[in-house]
Amino acid sequence: MRKIIITAVLGLACSSAMATQLYRWVDENGVTQFSQQPPTEDQYQRMQVKPAPELGTGSLAPKASSDSAEPAEPTEPAPAAQPTAEQQAKLAEWCNALRANLTTMQNNPRLRRTLDDGTVERIAEDERQTMIAKAQADLQEHCQ
Questions:
Q1: How far apart are CA 124 and CA 110, in angstroms?
Q2: CA–CA gap between residue 114 and residue 13 (Å, rounded)
Q3: CA Rg, the chain, in Å?
Q4: Residue 128: CB atoms within 10 Å
Q5: If 0-12 CB within 10 Å is exposed, 13-18 middle and 19+ buried, where does residue 38 land?
Q6: Which of 54, 65, 51, 55 is nearest to 20 (CA)?
Q7: 115-139 residue pLDDT tens
Q8: How many CB atoms lie within 10 A of CB 115?
Q9: Alpha-carbon dihedral of residues 47, 53, 59, 63, nearest 10 degrees?
Q10: What is the pTM of this model?
Q11: Looking only at Cα atoms, what is the longest distance across the chain?
Q12: What secondary structure, in 3-state letters, does 9-56 show?
């Protein structure tokens, strides 16, 4: 039974048309169930499922999570390894995109973004300034 559940969950995770919400509950027979629709009678747990990023959209720079309340623990620096030509090319491409985004943020005070539900919201000035500062810091750290 476990293999069936694991296979079903992995199948959902690999699906390109995957929903962003998944519901989990235990039915009257004690079997854990997963579905995209919540059950009508049983208590359930809502699970947020993030779709996998599309190929070629990953970032080379580590992303800082602003959601966590506590700072990340310091880690030991990795031994300096020489980056390959392919890694250098990806970094140069990422740096060019970051420079273009920074120019856009600096030259356009009225930025907006489209949310997951399709609504468009305007980015406030303080958030724009924060985004500019982060882009400048990323350039300083990764693109020198």
A1: 8
A2: 24
A3: 21
A4: 17
A5: middle
A6: 51
A7: 889 899 998 999 999 999 999 999 8
A8: 8
A9: -10
A10: 0.42
A11: 61
A12: HHHHHHCCCCCCEEEEEECCCCCEEEECCCCCCCCCEEEECCCCCCCC
